[in-house]
Design goal:
Blueprint: E1 8-14, H1 24-46, H2 51-63, E2 84-90, E3 95-102, H3 108-118, E4 123-125, H4 126-135, H5 149-158, E5 181-186, E6 192-198, E7 219-221, E8 226-232, H6 234-240, H7 242-251, H8 257-268, E9 274-280, E10 285-286, E11 293-300, E12 305-310
Parallel strand pairs: 3-4
Antiparallel strand pairs: 1-5, 1-11, 2-3, 2-6, 5-6, 7-8, 8-9, 9-10, 11-12
Helix pairs in contact: 1-2, 2-3, 7-8
């Protein structure tokens, strides 16, 4: 007789946050954006749907929200364009799909899942990814669809000195917070899934690939242990294989989720480099970060729910 699990979903909107003195109405916009994305994923779980469907749905809503750095409102490369990365992973079989440096796909997370389910390969980039998307009838948009006036101003500010603005850098004068988005979930069947999507770093070199589409760096899920989605300075998460390191500490070191995640974030990653969300196979979840804040939210079947920005 199978055991029915209590579903849970956790989402993040990046480890770069708005200043604490931001106008209340602006804060409310971010809170509402997180709430809509959270509820969209949770409703799928609550109706008996899969963790995979739930995390994709939440990320789609965040990709559509220009307040976050994924899809619409994505940051600009040094070339003045947008290049998007995304990944999704199924904890049942460790099946993984990802895409990077795409410029015309409205919902990169949908492309990541299409790759996972319809290709022998796991990662497609650039024009090859878009050719694959075209064959599977995914929605295309002009690169200008992702434009945002405030993001462009930030590019112009960064260009003269060649500054690369990290995903979570806090600029008190910035009109917006921004960051990689992601979701992790446990469904009633006991399956885990993770999804992550990002526009990367402001003024990043064209063709740069961050941690988001790299298995074990920014995205990971395995029913044996946990599902993880990371946000922050991608190069640091790549070097430390942050997402899969949590899995390894749980599987081989028999550490509980919260202890494993905190060791990665506070002992292995450089200070002020980012954060992550994770849920384990029993429904325990954690949201540690070593930055001034992280857009984050969770909801459980028991009715527990929270949306936070700062510590």
């Amino acid at each position: 007789m199978s055991v029915v699990m209590e579903p849970v979903i956790v989402i993040h909107g990046g480890a770069r946050v708005i200043p604490g003195n931001t106008a209340p109405e602006k804060v409310e916009q971010y809170m509402l954006g997180l709430k809509v994305a959270l509820e969209s994923g949770f409703n799928i779980l609550n109706d008996g749907g899969s963790a995979l469907d739930a995390v994709m749905e939440s990320v789609i809503f965040l990709e559509d929200n220009p307040l976050f750095n994924a899809g619409r409102g994505a940051v600009y490369t040094s070339c003045g364009t947008h290049e998007l990365d995304a990944a999704i992973m199924d904890g049942r079989n460790r099946n993984f799909g990802a895409t990077c440096t795409v410029k015309h796909i409205k919902h990169p997370v949908k492309l990541a899942r299409t790759i996972m389910e319809n290709s022998y390969h796991h990662i497609f980039s650039g024009e090859g990814a878009e050719d694959f998307a075209r064959k599977h009838n995914l929605e295309f948009v002009k690169n200008s669809f992702f434009d945002d006036e405030d993001r462009y101003k930030e590019l112009l500010k960064a260009r003269p000195d060649g500054v690369i603005v990290r995903d979570h850098d806090l600029d008190p004068g910035a009109p917006k917070g921004m960051g990689t988005v992601g979701a992790v979930a446990l469904d009633s069947f006991g399956n885990l899934a993770a999804a992550t999507s990002t526009g990367g770093l402001t003024n990043k070199s064209c063709g740069r690939v961050g941690d988001t589409p790299l298995l074990g760096a920014g995205t990971f899920a395995d029913n044996q242990t946990c599902a993880v989605s990371c946000t922050g300075f991608g190069e640091e998460f790549i070097k430390k294989l942050a997402a899969s390191d949590i899995h390894a500490k749980m599987l081989y070191g028999h550490m509980p989720l919260d202890e494993a995640a905190e060791e990665v974030v506070f002992k292995h990653l450089e200070p002020d480099s980012g954060g992550l969300i994770a849920v384990d196979r029993k429904g325990n979840f954690t949201m540690p970060f070593n930055t001034p804040g992280m857009f984050r939210a969770y909801r459980t079947a028991a009715g527990d729910s929270s949306i936070k920005i700062w510590e």
